[in-house]
Amino acid sequence: MNAQNTLQDAYIYDAVRTPFGKVGGALAKTRPDDLAALVVRESVQRASGLEKSGHEAIDEVVWGNANGAGEENRNVARMATLLAGLPTSIPGTTVNRLCGSSLDAAIIASRQINTGEADVMLVGGVESMSRAPWVLPKTERPFPMHNLELANTTLGWRLINKNMPKEWTVSLGEATEQLREKYGIDRERMDEFAANSHQLAARAWDEGKYDQLTVQVPDTDLTRDETIRPDSTAESLSQLRTVFRKENGMVTAGNSSPMNDGASAAWLGSDKAADVLGLQPLARIAGRGAAANEPQYFGYAPVDAANRALKRAGIGWDDVAAVELNEAFAAQSLACTDAWGVDLSIVNTWGGAIAIGHPLGASGTRVLGTLARRLEESGDRWGVAALCIGVGQGLAVVLENVNAR
Q: Which positions are annotated as active-site residues?
């Protein structure tokens, strides 16, 4: 904190991610720590000022990861910086807030910048859902005579505490069925929203909007997000069977985000970081919000999180020109946008996770970086990045375009 005991602003300077691979797909042979190291290395290379300033100018690395049970288990933030060849003097910490992990990493880093504890922070996240291991719980007594069951750590609840209420531990899909029933979201709207996500994502790639935001993973031929289906229509998606309920279900694989592999990163810093990084700020982090509700209604938690972030930024929804929402499911996305009263024409205009994919720990800095670049392109002033989070939480960040028209 400076001599006047005032807070300094935190800005996002750049963002980059890998194309997201489908589970068992093009990135399945790449370790998560290597994916993380790749975007760290790419971020450093894009910050030309570091050649003069020195890599030691990076105050800290904060990384998001949801599973942490596999090859990324030894604090992947630290592992990524070491694998990327950065100095051993740069500290790193890994954050787990499930789907919101890397946005939480950005929030944590921005607070360090606000208080003057840091001027240059590298944040990001990674997930390899393909390589998430099965785990075998330890027994309470040695040499048991009964069989033991492996638990899959890819997604959702596992090794559940018997004291946890059953209504809280339903599958993510069943929770979304309950959410869409509560808020009156019908199948037609869900499939239309999902089809639009695919069409917008394909168009954004075709128009080169992701060229600056992505880096190809070596030894793969993946040049775009692997789960985009440009020919998706509401009619074709309506033919898919429901997954989580045999009767009266509406949630399908087509109107849900897939499971994915990928990594993302972003530079955050104070105004002093411009000279250190050799980059100009894109947007100011103007507001942050976290919220929680009943675990089975996790998809609705971004509503309060975004409203709190907007209040802290001193603006309202009428001021917002761009929204990036992670799209875990079409139903939860529509429940949130309905509650906010926003026009869908400003939501995920470059596609969302239903098309792009949702590698849990990497999604937060994906939505944050995409929002910053959308505001840069449009010249609009205000945007919101938000994510729903399993076990009933939501996170949101408000960005202010520093070069708004």
A: 99, 358, 388
